Amino acid sequence: QAAAVQSRRPQEASAAARSAREGRRATPEIMGKAAKAAAGKKKLPSAPLADKKKKAQKNPLFEKTPRNFRLGGDIQPKRDLTRFVRWPKYVRLQRMKKIMLMRLKMPPAINQFNMTIDKNQAATLLRLLKKYQPETGEAKKNRLMEMAQQKKDGQEVKTKKPTVIKYGLNHVTTLIENKAAKLVVIAHDVDPIEMVCWLPALCRKKDVPYCIIKGKGRLGMLVHKKAASCVALTTVRQEDKAELDKLADNFKAQFNDNAEVRRRWGGGIMGIKSQHVMQRREKAIQIE
User: Fold this and answer.
1) What is the rounded CA–CA span in Å between residue 146 and residue 152?
2) Which residues, given as ranges, of the chain have pLDDT below 50?
3) Whole-model pTM?
């Protein structure tokens, strides 16, 4: 057995030496193949007309300071958040009321208050009415003091009836019934509207020129109040007579003698989605 082991050792040693020589011979062959493969790939030339990007020169005076709008960073920019606002209840109510009045059908007696005089007519009318404003509380107090002083001194007190616009619903109604009013101006936004919705019919019956103007507040300013539902002119000075007659004729044609005002219904305006649905429905009917 010892002889067999000794004879096996030189054989193993010679086999190991042979494999090492073969390995040394193989490495340069492998390296040569890799080099040939690398040389086989051609290097493409760069495009001759390609625009070379010029590096912008940094100005040390104006340094970039990019902002970070993430959590804990810079303050967010101002945005229009109107759609996301929780509006006060009175704002929501008035918006809902406006939409409801658009949707509901409105009879001619109510709808006539949407047909008002235009901006130029209103400016001319208000300029005339402003000349006949009633006296303020302060002016009245001074006038009464002067009259009292004149009486005290034994002088004759001269009083002249002032030419002013008349206001107050009951007072104006009486003037219309007696045909004393020369021109009646009614506000379009009286609330409740039932207070004045019969007034145009009365004016037509008594043949008194009337018009509907936007804003009860504007009429109120003329008579030193917050608001006035209607005002009336009974008399004017000689220099304003022609202007009053011209306005009365225009308003008579526009309101008193206009049959369209008494017939036209209002409202019934649907939202944009409903309008599109109706259009699609009509198209489908036409196709059939």
Assistant:
1) 10
2) 2-6, 26
3) 0.64
